[in-house]
Amino acid sequence: MSESGERSKERLLHEALMRFTRQPYADVTLREIEKATGLSRGTVMYHINNKENLFRETVEMFVFRQNTLTSLAEDPNRSLKDTISEFIRILGTEQRRWKRNGIRNINFALVNIQMSCYNIIKDSLKHAGEWYESECAIWKGVIERAIASGEIREVDADLLAHTLENTYFGAAYAGMASPDGYDLNVVEQQLMLIYDGWKK
User: Fold this and answer.
1) CA torsion sign, 50 to 52 to 55 to 57?
2) CB 12, CB 44: distance < 8 Å
3) In which residue ranges of the chain is pLDDT below 70?
4) From the DSSP assignment, how many helices (H) and strands (E) are in the chain?
5) Are 55 and 20 in contact, with CB atoms under 8 Å apart?
């Protein structure tokens, strides 16, 4: 895909995100997305073919790829402590980006679009479960390296990985009730409290 084609698709997905996080799926039309992006129907169809595909790609990009451990570049030398800090940095970058684009509470928006996804796309709940386990697997790999390097004490790496991921999810869910979403300083403090319980 050409650079201009990539920019067009990026604009398309971005506008779709704005619509799908604020409106019910049924109320979003390709016509209004075309108008908002200035893209022709032909360009839109070239990139996504239909509304369900647009929704699916929007969810994949903004729910399952960005704002996740998956988006953190792998570094076999990164400590568990630094991984937590980098994860918080990524969450902060996404929170600020969404706010700049008119979404004040990223947590509410993400839950809103995910709930729509479960009702609209077949097997999306299964996909979400697989994604969750892949996130935990990333944590587990980092934890196993931290044990091997002597950064932390011996621990059930799988259990600690799920504890870290569930702490993040709990904070994200609780953040729906706050006007600005979760307080990432608090999320970092919670994750570091768990870390401090196991560091040597």
Assistant:
1) negative
2) yes
3) 1-5
4) 9, 0
5) yes
